[in-house]
Amino acid sequence: MIRIHPTADVSPRAQIGDGTSIWHQAQVREGAHIGQECIIGKNVYIDFDVPIGNRVKIQNNCSIYHGAILEDGVFIGPHVVTTNDLYPRAINPDGTLKRAADWEAGAVRICYGAAVGARSVILPGVTIGRFAMVGAGAVVTADVPPHGLVVGAPARLIGYVCACGRRLRAAESGLVCAHCTATYSNPPAG
Question: Residue 186 falls within a domain, yes or no?
C-alpha cells in the first residue's frame, strides 16, 4: 500500500513503489521513480526524472535535484542537498535568462547502503560508494570509496565503516568491526 499525505504534491507522472510513504508537504516531480518501501519525509523535494531505489529513507527538508541517482538502501539525513550545476548562473553572459538548454545537469550517485549525514551538500560529479558514510555538515566535492567515512568541508576521508554503520578498526586480518565482528580487506572492497 502506498501512503501519500494529503498535503504532498506528487505528480501523476511519477512512479511510486508499493509500501512507500510520502509525508507532509513533500513534492515529487514528473518522471521521478521511487522504489518500494521508501520513506520520503516532510518537505522533501524530489526533482523530475530522479530514480530512487527500494528501501530508501529521505529525512525532512531534503532537496534531491535532477541528475541524482539513489540506489537501494540509501539513507539521506535531514536537510541534505544534492546539487547539479558546477557553474551556476541565473543569466547567460548576454544577460538573457538561462533556460534548461543553457546548462547540463551534473550527476550525483549515492550507491547501495550509503548514508549521508544531516545538512550535507553533495556536489555534481560525485559518487558515494557502497556502504560509505558522510558525516553531518560535510561538503562532498570528490568521490567517496566504498565503506569510506568522510567529514568536513571539503569532505576528507578519515577511515572506513562497516555495513552496520560502525567505524572499522585495523587488525592483523585487515579491518574489523567491534560491534558485529565483520572483517574487511584494507581498504574495503565495494
Answer: no
